[in-house]
Prior knowledge:
Residues 1-28 have low confidence and may be disordered. The protein has a 4-stranded antiparallel sheet, with no helix packed on it. The chain is mainly beta. Helix content is 9%, strand content 32%. It has 3 domains: 1-56, no CATH class; 63-154, Immunoglobulin-like (Sandwich); 164-364, no CATH class. A hairpin with a 5-residue loop joins strand 13 and strand 14 (176-177).
Amino acid sequence: MFNCTQPCPNMKHFIVIVLSVIGMKASAQVVMNIIQNNGTVLQIPVNSIDSIAYATSSVVPPVLNTLPVTSITATDAYSGGEVTNEGGASVTQRGVCWSNNPIPTTTDNLTNDGSGPGSYSSFITGLANGGTYYVRAYAVNSAGVAYGNQVQFIATDGSPPLFTSGPGVSDVEGNQYPSIIMSNGQEWMAVNLRTSTYANGDPIPNQPNSSTWTNNSSVGAWAYFDNNSFYEQPYGKLYNWYAVSDVRNVCPTGWHVPSDSEWTEFTDFLGGELVAGAKLRSTDSQYWNDASSATNTSGFSGQPGGLRESDGDFVGMSTEAFWWTATANGSSTAWYRQVDQSSISVYRGGNESRRYGRSIRCLRD
Length: 365
């Protein structure tokens, strides 16, 4: 918590504090409290903050927008920015910065496209075919560096894109899930399920106790990884297969847990199980211990949320991701999919207990 021990300065003053969160898991649990002089308290998640600026003069960082990415090829593209307010001092440098990871900064790749206010064009080069990239315009004045909004794109050789952004969905609890629409017609959630309520409003039990989890042979249940709510963002909850198979539907209305064959359709569309793993994995090294082989060209943005074993132990955080299918395999096991940071493949498994806790991605009906 950040508090002023003396009366805080007027809001016309600004502070420059650069917050860097490296390797933090689910940092949405950490907030900064800003207490205004009228008594109002603003709570801002730390992981949503680029920088906070404070200066004793009227100079503030510039205000700018990132222009859309156009003329995309397998190796380069065009973007740019528009400086709408110089902030009380001349903009001495401007351009765009980009990276395979979200929220790029000027410590990543960047262009230098002149100075001053107004619109400018930027040439982005050195891209890898099929790679997912994130771009932000930047501008510098004497108060520091400011950034525009983030734009995401995929370097492509001109073939049709694998996916477009979908309208998303919310569950019965109000949790919001972005979605991706694949060119094969499937619409997937782009993040893991977080609900603790079936679609009909009935609760799904939380079973943190290892003994209760181990002895459960029929009741749907969920757990946080390591029984710590800190991990819910961005990994979601871990569910046993009894929650998957429950007729009350663990997914939002109009959505379902994909079958084994629907998962196979997805991975076949991505080139087959031998290569689809890299395309399913997020490129964000904040979450994966090693994201070097990930491309996320599917837009699926798979995160390594780990696993709860049938004996209640937790394993695999930051190195592996597991998702249930809705398809049983015999009387006591069910099919699932797994990706690992050490491989570009997808593993199709089906010989482990339904008591295991795995992530869920829902598919639109």
